[in-house]
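Posting for a labmate who doesn't have an account.
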Amino acid sequence: MSQIHDRLDWNLLRTFLAIIQEGSISRAAIRLHVTQPAVSLALKRLEEQLGESLITRNGANFTITTAGELVYKEALAIYGSIARLSLAVQDMPQDLSGVVRLAVVSAVKSDILDQVLSEFHLAHPRVTFEIMTGSSSEVQHALLHFQAALGISLKHKNVLGLAYTPLLHQKYFFYCGKSHPLYGKTDLSMEDLKSEKFVSFASEQLDGVLAPLALFRAKQSLDGHTTGTSSSLHEVIRMIRSGLGIGALPEHVVSEEAASGNLWKLPPYEGMARVTLYLMWNDSLKINKAEETFLDYLRKNLTVAGY
């Protein structure tokens, strides 16, 4: 009798991954560009081959079984290996090549990162970079699901499976745009902000990655109406610059906007919070030689810089 690994179809595991990640068979069908009956049939075939029920159906909903959780974890590892197979064969120490896949939050402004990218490219010109952007949760999702080797994002709490090291400490200040009534005023106090409308990040919640900003507002009773939110730093800047309300921004990112007069700094003038941006990677992922070399070089530069 043939072993299960000799006859198991990888496409069945890929379909099962989509079902669990999408939370429904219909959404999995849309993601895979197949019909819903085809997804249901693939799930049935996988359960038959494994001899286990992987989900428990309850009408349109389902819950994953213990066996299903185990299969899901193993399928993730297999997916990561397949997705990175072509990269692994490029690991040639004597002439480094390959692809370094990064997932980063928007508008990362880091002199150390820029310097490392420049020096690494000069030393290893055959290495290429693929950089995807997203929210902090999307960056962490990409790392956990083997879609990127390295990530740069904020974090509210430790995530099982991810390793971290500080990349950059960001100091946040309140700003307003030219059309805002507070623009140009220098004799302001915190009391002047209490009746103002706010623009905020989507993660500016007590349980989000920008919890320090939410905590500061709560302590200062800055509970004015929120007129705009976004997970994109660029869009938050745009809304503040356009006068929708005041909002917190990292000083080093918007220093040129402030110097040119597009933004005006508001109290507290010593800053409201310090938030750390982290370099992250998946501890369980076997990265290729190019990614390993880049990670080591970046971490050494961060150590020299005191991070």
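Reply:
Got it, the structure tokens are right above this. Residues 107 and 233 are 7 Å apart (CA to CA).
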